[in-house]
Design brief:
Length: 440
């Protein structure tokens, strides 16, 4: 199978694109979305299967392109977190293909009846799910987003415009070419999946101001990227926030369970947004918990940024890998093997700390009482709350959504992992038998 040619972009090197080029891509997406809006589920699922087949058949070329991007990223001094997000392996490519397979098994949201009723005048009122239309994704590194976004958009009846970063351009060019081939093989327009021309900042501005051609923009990346899109877009934005996630260890927590949950939340994959960045420990369990947790974190390579109470206990315990915390640590999404740690007097103080420093992404409590679990769940303002479980579970695949476009931390339309339903809107249909409305 021929593999599309690679891009020549390198980390830190941008490719300019003028507004006409970006708008032309958006117009092609708009036209393609109309063809997809009425496509039956069987056609969409066939396209997803073809996309997955082409990924599996081209692992070598994908990894070769990814190696070029990684080498350029190292040369450009990309951070550990960005390099890890950028890196693909054979297993990760297989996982991307498997996510497309999972989407084929999920119900088609388009046409689903959300609610309905018969009005007093006898007319039938129905609210149906319909596609958004053209969805633009602006994201940093993470070439897996290219595949996940294309798959979810297609299954939910939307065209997708992919604006990845220059650091992943070579990988994204190969991936998008394979996905477009799969879409075309199922008889659908290849322009349902497009890379946005250009990798300079201007191309993002052209995209997020293409009101009337693009229906929604979803930014995925660091705080700077998200803030820039939110503040400059004239297209509606579904905001995916950064993940300053906390694990609170309650006085009644099982220490061994709490250590396992914390280490998994922090060290499983520290570069992703659902990784824990702060642990808060009830003072009544602080010494036994830290006696077990600090060595476990050190073995996992984690540096603990400790408040005075944690630092004092660490000194008495002779724990390694502990440094004093600074004020900025409580607001930092490290995306690395670093963890802030503090002792709190009670659950109220833990919730107050999260209110001040959290980003509304994922918060976890480890507790042995239903009362503490219920209080924490009710009071913490977050898209996802974990009770006696790792923050790593905030993920579209883990939630049974097949994959995700991103994790929304806003409160309008979509919140938490965004799957198929979150990429739809609704349409009201009223069916009558000649009813007319009287004067009022």
């Amino acid at each position: 199978m021929p593999v599309p040619g690679r891009g020549t972009s390198r980390a830190g090197r941008s490719e300019p694109a003028d507004r006409d080029q970006v708008l032309a891509a958006a117009r092609r997406a708009r036209g393609a979305s109309r063809a997809l809006a009425t496509a039956p589920r069987g056609v969409k699922d066939a396209a997803l299967r073809a996309m997955a087949e082409r990924l599996r058949a081209s692992v070598g070329p994908v990894l070769e392109a990814n190696a070029e991007d990684l080498a350029a990223g190292v040369e450009a001094g990309l951070s550990y977190g960005l390099l890890d997000r950028l890196r693909l392996t054979a297993d990760r490519v297989a996982g991307m293909a498997a996510a497309l397979d999972t989407l084929t098994a999920l119900p088609d949201p388009v046409g689903e009846v959300v609610r309905g009723s018969v009005l007093p005048n006898g007319a039938q009122l129905t609210q149906l799910r319909v596609p958004l239309g053209v969805v633009a994704i602006v994201y940093e590194a993470r070439p897996n987003v290219t595949v996940d976004a294309a798959g979810i958009a297609l299954k939910s009846g939307n065209a997708v415009l992919l604006r990845g970063s220059a650091s992943a351009r070579s990988t994204n060019v190969v991936l998008a070419g394979l996905l477009r081939d799969g879409v075309a093989a199922a008889g659908l327009p290849a322009d349902l999946v497009q890379l946005v021309p250009g990798t300079d900042r201007a191309s993002v501005q052209h995209l997020v101001t293409a009101r009337g051609l693009v229906d929604v923009v979803v930014p995925r990346g660091g705080a700077g990227l998200i803030r820039s899109v939110v503040e400059t877009s004239t297209v509606p934005v579904i905001e995916t926030g950064v993940g300053n996630c906390h694990v609170y260890v309650d006085a009644s927590a099982d220490v061994a369970m709490a250590v396992d949950i914390l280490v998994n939340s922090k060290a499983r994959r520290p570069s992703v947004c659902n990784a824990a960045e702060t642990v808060l420990v009830h003072r009544d369990v602080a010494e036994p918990f830290l006696a077990a947790a600090l060595p476990a974190l050190h073995r996992a390579g984690v540096t603990v940024h400790a408040d005075p109470a944690v630092a004092e206990l660490a000194g008495r315990l002779g724990a390694a890998g502990v440094v004093p915390a600074e004020d900025a640590d409580w607001d930092t999404e490290y995306l690395s093997l670093d963890l802030a740690a503090a002792v709190v007097p009670d659950l109220d103080a833990a919730v107050a700390h999260i209110d001040r420093h959290g980003t509304g992404h994922t918060e976890a409590i480890v507790t042995g009482t239903l009362e503490a679990a219920a209080a924490f769940t009710a009071r913490v303002d977050a898209a996802a709350v974990m009770v006696n479980a790792s923050t790593a579970f905030t993920d579209g695949g883990e939630f049974g959504l097949g994959a995700e476009i991103g994790i929304s931390t806003q409160k309008l339309h979509a919140r938490g992992p965004m799957g198929l339903a979150e990429l739809t809107s609704t349409k009201w249909v009223l069916t009558g038998t000649g009813q007319i409305r009287g004067a009022s």
